[in-house]
């Protein structure tokens, strides 16, 4: 869903035989694709950036 603070769009990604990460998830293929589609969609429809992006998160893989 995008934008996160006031959802206007839903982007679904379905891939046939995606490249998989070491943990077996297809996120390394789907995430960049979602980013490109959502960025284009939001720019195309002049959706403003969120006023407050929120706190930075530190992610850690286990």
Please provide a written account of the structure.
By secondary structure, this protein is mostly helical. It has one helix at residues 27-44. The chain has one domain. The mean pLDDT is 83.
Give the helix level as a range of percent. Answer: 25-40%
Question: Element order, helices and strands?
Answer: H
Rg result:
14 Å
Percentage of residues in strands: under 5%
What can be said about the biggest beta sheet? none
- Taking pLDDT < 50 over at least 5 consecutive residues as the criterion, the unreliable ranges are none
Shape: flat
Topology:
Elements: H1 27-44
Features:
29% helix, single chain, mainly alpha, 1 helix, 0% strand, 62 residues
Quick structural gist:
This is Penicillin binding protein transpeptidase domain-containing protein. This protein has 62 residues and is an all-alpha fold. It has one helix at residues 27-44.
């Amino acid at each position: 869903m995008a934008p996160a603070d006031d959802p206007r769009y839903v982007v679904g990604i379905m891939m046939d035989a995606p490249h998989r990460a070491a943990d077996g998830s297809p996120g390394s293929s789907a995430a960049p694709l979602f980013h490109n589609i959502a960025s284009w969609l939001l720019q195309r429809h002049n959706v403003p950036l969120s006023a407050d992006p929120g706190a930075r998160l530190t992610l850690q893989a286990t």
